[in-house]
Amino acid sequence: MHLTIQGLRQILTTDLTLIKHVASLTQAEKMIAITPQAVRLENLRCGKEAAIQLKAQIEADCLAAHLDITLSESPRTLADFKLVAMDMDSTLITIECIDEIADMQGLKPQVSAITEAAMRGEIEFQESLARRVALLKGLDAAALQKVYEERVRLSPGAENMLKAVQQAGLKTLLVSGGFTFFTDRMKTRCNLDYTHANVLEIEQGKLTGKVVGGIVDALEKQRTVERVAAELGIATKQVIVMGDGANDLKMMGISGLSVAFRAKPVVRAQADVALNFVGLDGVLNVLHP
Known about the structure:
Layout: E1 2-6, H1 11-14, H2 16-26, E2 28-35, E3 38-44, H3 48-64, E4 68-72, E5 83-86, H4 97-103, H5 108-119, H6 125-134, H7 142-151, H8 158-167, E6 171-179, H9 180-190, E7 194-203, E8 206-212, H10 218-232, E9 239-243, H11 249-253, E10 257-261, H12 265-268, E11 273-275, H13 282-286
């Protein structure tokens, strides 16, 4: 077993006492500095069961110190994977696009409340999307470009992560319960290989409050990952999947490595890697060179 600890600061200077305490608890054989912000405790001699039992205690201590931890059983490298599949809203980018579109209608609080409930898994995604899109009826379609230009920002670490995986030869997939207006632009902006999202219906320059065709829900996200993997001739265990909401759990569940990025508790609990404080490039520290 190995344990990766990482944060936004130079943790071997600021958090060395805590790291040494964790190393002692887990009886780590070696401490390897990955970067100034990340360290890996290798060959935990406490045993697998003990390490899993200790994880909750270590996680609580590290959470209080704003540090992320990842417990892994065997070394994995980028070379083990062939595809990175990402959610868009609040994962690759910092915002929920539909909430910001709704802000143009003065309806952000109402739409955000539905978004949050869906992310926590309290409302079925298809129902939540239909309810939210319906509230946008009559909005000038120009608002979409305004949201893209003024509010869409890449999440911390996204550029570094994408650069590293693309240089390593991995393909990239952006699969979103959001809208093609934004995924199409992110595909060009980030040089992504595949995208899949919902199509907003627009008539006479106005949103109709409906989407065209089927809704990209949790099952469709899973099917998209499976479809792209099949097209590439790879197994889904060769896919890294990143997400933050309940709508991402099905595609995360079939992956070889699931990454919860600043995610809801239900998602963090089921992911292989939980990045609560560091950027998306924190996944690179979990993988061996």
